[in-house]
Design goal:
Layout (H helix, E strand, L loop, with lengths): L1 H29 L2 H6 L5 H17 L3 H25 L18 E2 L2 E2 L5
Antiparallel strand pairs: 1-2
Helix pairs in contact: 1-3, 1-4, 3-4
């Protein structure tokens, strides 16, 4: 029974790693080529190959060591490259909870605070 639970845990872990890799690959695929250069990151083909190999490894060669290496690449893309691409591509606008990104430190929830002036 313990082995069956562990097998289920590993299956869910593999599924989560595959999900993150597919999402990162789709985001890289949909991003503009010039945004990668403007953000001073690796090229779009580099990230497509790296993330594509990650997805292929997760689907066809489910070895945990290789999946963890791919997971690191996916996390680096999602945490470092994706925000840089959004900044360069003008992905600003409203962020989470309706607040504008990059606002002043004196901005309140209903707009800028001007001290009653």
């Amino acid at each position: 029974m313990l082995m069956q639970g562990f097998g289920t845990f590993l299956w869910l872990l593999n599924l989560a790693i595959l999900f993150i890799a597919v999402i990162a690959f789709v985001i890289a695929l949909m991003s503009r080529e010039d945004a990668f250069r403007a953000a001073d990151k690796q090229t779009k083909p580099f990230w497509l190959v790296l993330l594509g190999v990650t997805v292929a490894v997760n689907v066809f060669v489910p070895m945990l060591f290789l999946q963890i290496i791919g997971l690191v690449a996916s996390i680096v893309f999602m945490v470092d490259v994706r925000p840089a691409l959004q900044r360069v591509s003008g992905g600003g606008g409203k962020g989470r909870w309706g607040r504008r990104r990059g606002g002043s430190s004196s901005d309140g929830p209903y707009g800028p605070y001007n001290g009653g002036r």
